[in-house]
Amino acid sequence: MPEHAPFAGCAVVVVNYASAALLEQNLTRLSRAADGLIVVVVDNASTPDERGELTRIAHAEGWETVLPDTNLGFGLGVNAGVAHAAERGAQRFLLLNPDAVIEPVDAERLFAAVAAHRLTLVSPRVLRPDGSTWFAGADVSLVDGRMSSAAKRPQPAARRAEPWLSGACLAVSAELWDRVGGFADDYFLYWEDVDLSHRVLASGGELAVLDDAVCVHAEGGTQQTGEAHASPAKSNGYYYFNIRNRLLFAARNLSTDDLLAWQRTANAVAWEILLQGGRRQFLHSLRPFSAALRALRDGRRIVRDELAARSGGAAPAEPDSARNAS
C-alpha cells in the first residue's frame, strides 16, 4: 500500500433514484481521482432503462451497486449501501446525494476528520452552484419544530434548540454508525438526518461542520431537469414527508409535553412548508394541499398512537400512506 493512501478503508455511498446521468456527471470526477476509494451506489428501484444505464456507468467506472427490488427510501437505501461497503472493509463513509459534487481534496479532509474524531458526525459547508451557502449547520427548535440556520443561533442560546446536519453530504466512522444504528427505518425521505443527528448527540457523540471542506449541492436536481432554481415549487413528496416526519420525529424522540406542543403548531408549520414552493404553485394545482392534509392526518395518527403507548394503551400503529405520497 502506498505510504500516503488517504482513501484506504473509505467509501462513498450514494442512493440513486432516476439520477444516473447526474451520477455520471457528479461522481466520476471524485471516483477517478481517489485511488482506493470504494464507491457504492444503491439504486432505489428505478425504471429498467434507468437501472440499465446505472449499471453500465458503474461497470465502466468500477463502482459497486446494490439493487433492491423495491424503493427503500433514502435512509434505508443508505443503510444498505453502508452495509455493503463495510463488508468490503470500509471503516469511514461519505454519504453523498446524487446532486452533490465534492472535490477529492474536500472528501479527503472529511475522511481525515472522522478518522481523528471517530464519534463525530461531520458535514462540509454545502454551497449552491452560485457559490452562496446552502448549509453550514442548522438548529431544530425543541419548542415547536421549526428550523433555523446555525448562523442565526442566539449567543447565548435564548431558546431550546438542537443542532443537526444535512444528509446531503455527511462523513461518519463505522464506530459511530454502528453505535447509533444508522438511519431510522420509518422516515422514508426527509427528517432522517435530523433524527440521526439527535441520536448521535444522545449517544454521547458530537456534530461538526468542517469549514475548510466544501461541496456543491444543486438542490432538487434529482427531481427536475434544467436549472435547479428555475422554480421554487417542490414535489408533493417533499411536502408530505416534511410535514408528516416532523411529527414522527417528535413522537420518536421528544417528551410528551414537547410532542403535544409540536402537534399544536402542526397546521401553522405545514403552511410554512407549503409556502417554500411559492404561492404561484397553487394557481396550477391543489395537489400540494392534498399532500399536506394527508401528511397532517398521518402525522397526527402517529402522535395519537405514541401517546396511547406511553399511557399504557394500544401499541403504535404503522403510519399509512407513506409510500404513496409522491
TrEMBL record:
SUPFAM superfamilies: Nucleotide-diphospho-sugar transferases (SSF53448). InterPro entries: Glyco_trans_2-like, Nucleotide-diphossugar_trans. Residues 12-135 form the Glycosyltransferase 2-like domain. It holds the Pfam family Glycos_transf_2. Gene3D superfamilies: Spore Coat Polysaccharide Biosynthesis Protein SpsA, Chain A. PANTHER family: RHAMNOSYLTRANSFERASE WBBL. This is Glycosyltransferase 2-like domain-containing protein.
